[in-house]
Amino acid sequence: MKTALLTGLRRIEVVETPSPVLRNARDVKIKVEAVGICGSDVHYYVWGGIGAQKIRYPQTVGHECAGTVIEVGPSCRRVKVGQRVAIEPALSCGQCDQCKEGRPHTCRQLSFMGCPGQAPGTLSESIVVPETACYPVPGALSPPLAATVEPLSIGMYAASLGTPKPGMAVGILGTGPIGLCLLLALQTDVGPAVYATDLRSERLELAKRWGASWTASPEEVDIVSAVADKEPRGLDLVYECAGQQSTLDQAVALLKPGGRLVLVGIPESPKVEFEIDLLRRKELVLQNVRRQNEFMDSAIQLAERRRADLEALITHLFPLSQVQTAFDLAAAYGDKVIKAVICL
After folding, report:
1. Is residue 141 part of a domain?
2. Is 142 part of any domain?
3. Of 123, 35, 9, 46, which is closest to residue 340 (Cα–Cα)?
């Protein structure tokens, strides 16, 4: 079968590899049909790692995955052959203290698909995963849309950690795919007012279409001053989705005393800084986000309701043979890309 492998910095090749086989009674074999390119994939492609997670070449990548079940183990009950599924790429043990406390996403033995030294990536013609990683999707969701369920689940989980309430003023700094998925999760009939920022106009345009109250680029306006003119008391809640020092600084300045900063973006640097005097005097709450926790089913339901919106998120489709082109485009933010998906 064909598999995409990282073979060096900014190098990804399609090679022939053995087809995976079922090893456990609850294993499921998936014919992969679509894999989205995530920002973390781009980190591995461009930088060769994220924090302590360093690539050892060759490395399989990809985790935003959807496909069709083609084989099941004898103990499988949740899915059957021929069923289309979205994949939860975080594989937890189910036995440790974190799993038993309802935190499988911080499992002590967690393996994540496409992470160095953990589980194989999904950019392959077929994969084998535990049945617990498979979430059936309705026929209305095309494979590329089904592949967006995983990032949408992260946006929904991040939204829940911020505990937004009607009447709040909320900031989303960075409206890439995760920031946009978060915005979609916030949009209810009584949702908060959302101030969204990004460097790229096409992403701000989509944020506006999806219900953001106000959008702007920090290259064009002073974000802190412009938002303060509209919200002189400050924002109740800010989601930092860009992973940049500049947006972290903006977030601290934008928040009102007692506000909450939810850290969603993955910084390129292993360390970031905060103006501790301002952080302390405002008594700000910092909340980290670790992927998603039990939001896959909810994300499938939201994706079905808002599939027309999600179609606008997916700006580029590529065959597996053009995976290098796809990664180069995503890394360079070329051709107004928001979400690129590899179709197998």
Report:
1. no
2. no
3. 35
- Which residues span the domain enclosing 190? 153-288
Number of domains in the chain: 2
> In this structure, what are the phi and psi dihedrals at residue 196, rounded to the nearest 5 degrees?
-115, 140
User: Of 65, 58, 180, 159, which is closest to residue 112 (Cα–Cα)?
Assistant: 65
pTM: 0.95
Query: Is 132 in the same domain as 162?
Result: no
Q: Are residues 27 and 127 in the same domain?
A: yes
Three-state DSSP at 208 gives helix
Write out the chain's pLDDT in tens, 344 residues: 999 999 999 999 999 999 999 999 999 999 999 999 999 999 999 999 988 889 999 999 999 999 999 999 999 999 999 999 999 999 999 999 999 999 999 999 999 999 999 999 999 999 999 999 999 999 999 999 999 999 999 999 999 999 888 889 999 999 999 999 999 999 865 578 999 999 999 999 999 999 999 999 999 999 999 999 999 999 999 999 999 999 999 999 999 999 999 999 998 888 999 999 999 999 999 999 999 999 999 999 999 999 999 999 999 999 999 999 999 999 999 999 999 999 99
Query: How many C-beta atoms surround the C-beta of residue 285 within 10 A?
Result: 13
Residue 124 DSSP one-character state = B
Exposed e or buried b for every residue in 234-246, given b needs 16+ CB within 10 A?
Answer: bbbbbbbbbbbee
Domain membership of residue 123 (yes or no) is: yes
**Can you give the CATH number for the domain in which 53 is found?**
3.90.180.10
CB-based contacts of 8, cutoff 8 Å, min separation 6: 57
Is residue 147 a part of any domain in this protein?
Answer: no
Report the distance separating Cα 13 and Cα 231, nearest Å. Answer: 49
Same domain, 281 and 312: no
